[in-house]
Amino acid sequence: MPKTHKLSRRELLAIAAQSAVGASLMGSTAWARELDEYGGFSGNKNFKYISAPATVYDFGLTPEQEEHAKELHESLIIFDGLSECTFYPEFITNMKRGGGTSGNFSIGISDMLRWTPDTVFKPQEWWSWEALNRDLDALYRMMHLFRDDAMMTLTHVDILEAKKTGKVGFMPGTQNTKFLDDAVNRLDEMHRKGLRIIQITYNATNAVGAGSAEAPENRFGLSRLGHMVVERMNEVGMLVDTGHSSPETQMRAAEVSTKPIVISHAGMLSKVNQTRATTDEAIRAVADKGGVMGVISTPTAIAGSDKCTVEDMLDNVDHAVNIAGIDGVGFGSDFIIPATFEQILSAPEWDEEVVANIGEFEVWPWSDGHVGWENNSAYPNMTRGLIKRGYSDEDIAKIMGGNFLRVIKDTIG
């Protein structure tokens, strides 16, 4: 693994200033923004786990088991079904600490470089065509800026290369199809630019499908436009994601798609009755077509409380395996660590009724309430916990990223 240099905020500020001067050479002048105390990146100095390592959870492993876990973890390809939704420089450090190979890096929320405490987002900024293009341009700049430690992973071969070189892989994804504005040909343009994973809906229903927060009596599978979107994504080589979609949309997407689809990050209603959860039937429908369900790490979705431990997440993994089988399960952390609660609620889909169903958030960031899964450096806890629960090395490799990698190879290439 190549030697890495951990940059301070001061160093990043200087580099960012240099990048602003040379931005036009990289095809964009938008980077020349006014820099702040975060060096022009997302961040929140009040949030501990932006930079602090995750808790090393005590599973009561023997020294021999700990050594085996370490060796096994270092050999794994680890793919997070939703690794982050913002770019903060310490994310790369946290991924390296955790041994993360790559992940679905979610973009197009509003502006992935502006998640600082004083930023106020407008609802119309979320999921727009402009936001998605801005974030893709910014992500390529970040890959150039941090090229010694990070790389775009646009295919399964790229993910293997990230593992080989010890770099952190970024597979661009987005969590809504609103950016299409009914123009299916935009999928082709986004594929050319590097977008690889698209979630059919966010919480709310859109022109393509029904969201997880839609009232049960109003839910449907896919619209005619939705059929066209899924079909075109299959054709161009994009992965259909249904993480925030309703069970009806998940099942219909699995039926219509000629390739496996995923539920990148969700809970299970048979475990916790909550908006961000889906049915056993939908999980089986996705798995039966070769797809994967990523167990979310949000405490309210996996434990019904804003406080839990990685044992609760492992309980959910066990439950998912019982539903989908070992080939149908992965994990999707759904981190957005620099964000404030108020910023999350600026999304048009987070109305009062949805928030009430999600639960109370006395702990924020919500990931601070998940002991042993506070940020991406926590990945070894999953390997260690699965060993404690008696999973074989082969099955651990599938859960930690092998299943997602298989689907990516089958759909994206």
Automatic annotation (TrEMBL):
One Pfam short name: Peptidase_M19
Quote the Gene3D superfamilies the UniProt record gives.
Metal-dependent hydrolases (3.20.20.140)
Q: Write out the entry's keywords from A to Z.
A: Dipeptidase, Hydrolase, Protease
Instruction: Give its E.C. classification number.
Output: 3.4.13.-
Q: Does the keyword Hydrolase apply?
A: yes
Q: Which GO terms describe its molecular function?
A: dipeptidase activity
Is the keyword Lipid biosynthesis in the record?
no
Matching entries from SUPFAM superfamilies are given as: Metallo-dependent hydrolases
The record's InterPro entries line, in alphabetical order, gives: Metal_Hydrolase (IPR032466), Pept_M19 (IPR008257), TAT_signal (IPR006311)
User: What is the protein name for this chain?
Assistant: Membrane dipeptidase
Q: Which organism was this protein described from?
A: Aliisedimentitalea scapharcae
